[in-house]
Amino acid sequence: MASTVNIAPSILKKYILCTRCLSRQAKEKVSGNIRRKGICYICNGLMERIDDLLELTLAALEEYRYKSFLLGAMVPSQMLEREDEVRSRFKIKGAESIKSYLTKQLGKMLTKKTGKRVDYVKPDVTINIDLVGNKVTVRSKPIHLYGRYVKRARGLSQRQERCGNCMGKGCVKCDNTGLSGLSSIEGIIVRKLIDAFKCERTKFAWVGGEDKDSLVLNKGRPFFVKVINPRLRFAKPRSVTKNGVHVRFIKRVGGLPDKPLRFKTKVRLLAECECNITSAALAKINALNNTAISFLGKHGREVSRNIYEISAKASGNTLNLMMLADGGFAIKQFVGGDGIAPSISQIVGSKVICKSFDVLDVKFTD
Ligand SMILES: [Zn+2]
Ligand SMILES: [Zn+2]
After folding, report:
1. Ligand found nearest the CA of 102
2. Distance CA 277, CA 312 (A)
3. Best label site of 66, 223, 318, 325, fewest CB within 10 Å?
4. Model pTM greater than 0.85?
5. DSSP string spanning 260-293?
6. For residue 1, what pLDDT band results from cuts at 50, 70 and 90?
7. What 8-state DSSP symbol labels residue 161?
8. Spacing, Cα 97 to ligand 1 middle (Å)
């Protein structure tokens, strides 16, 4: 087996290699004057373009604000194969691969140029240098936020319909948001996040929801949102107010909740009956304090939720109700009486229609 001291000349008798590719095989820096003229058998001139690759990378990073990065490369398989061929012929083991060398070198150059550091575990941005397609792509690690919104005007829905063109994937028509517009509470939040983070898209984890015509008062309803590919990672949006909705971004969190969170909701409800409400019926409603109520949930499964507090007042055929119940309690069903017992309609003895319900408080239960 050839020793590393004299392996370089032997390789050069067989192959034309550039200094960098030869140095890798020899595992030491080989001076340039022994180089033969011609294009490097392994990298096909790639190493001479390393400065161009740096420029391409810097251009791709231009709109990103970040602290750390990780750089990866997609190297054409023929390059790797040619390097393997040279190595097996000269029985070279444990030398650095062209791919690892390239990413390391570019990483060093990038650090020198930008002052940002390499992070192998949790980089702010991941840079992929695609030498097959000759392009550089950058992805920024998602940021997750926890916030709350208050809604003081009726008529705005919580969620936005998906874009009909791309079904939520993001396209030119929806400006990559995946949404049909930005006219909901979700839309107001998304607009603010796009402006602040120059992000691509968002993904929400809501903590319950309310009707389009419901108000959400006091501290408001909590939500979590994943900000996907945020280009401006240091943005700190605090709040946004629009169309009677006030959103506060409270803090950054590690991720979206991995399971549905348990919470209680306090609601104020206005309902109308076909007849006047008797004091006997009122007493029965008020006796539902601390009662578990079963009903058919979304997927046709029976669900049980607790009413912790209830207080009803009536005037004629109008019923005012305050309730503290588990999140996911079917309030309108409970009033109307479909597939749920006991219900307000059943107790009153005639059809009761929910006119409005407002959310007064949403509290996590732990
Ligand atoms: Zn080379
Ligand atoms: Zn779309």
Report:
1. 1
2. 11
3. 318
4. yes
5. PPPEEEEEEEEEEESSPPPHHHHHHHHTTTTEEE
6. very low
7. P
8. 11
Return the residue matching tokens 């607790």: 306
CA of 5 to the centre of ligand 1 (A): 20
**Closest listed ligand to the CA of 50:** 1
Question: Rounded CA gap, 362 and 353, in Å?
Answer: 24
What's the rounded Cα separation, in Å, for the pair 134 and 208? Answer: 46
Question: Active-site residues: which are they?
Answer: 211
Q: Where are the alpha helices (DSSP H) in 115-242?
A: 185-197
> Contact 68/117 with Cβ under 8 angstroms?
yes
* Cα 8 to ligand 1 centre (Å): 13
* Nearest ligand to the CA atom of 180: 2
Question: 160 alpha carbon to ligand 2 midpoint, in Å?
Answer: 12
For 223-274, how does the pLDDT look when each residue is reduced to its tens digit (9 = 90+)?
Answer: 999 999 999 999 999 999 999 999 999 999 999 999 889 999 999 999 999 9
Calculate ∠ Cα 219-224-230, nearest 5°.
Answer: 125
Residues recorded for the chain: 366
Q: How far is the CA of 251 from the centre of ligand 1 (A)?
A: 49
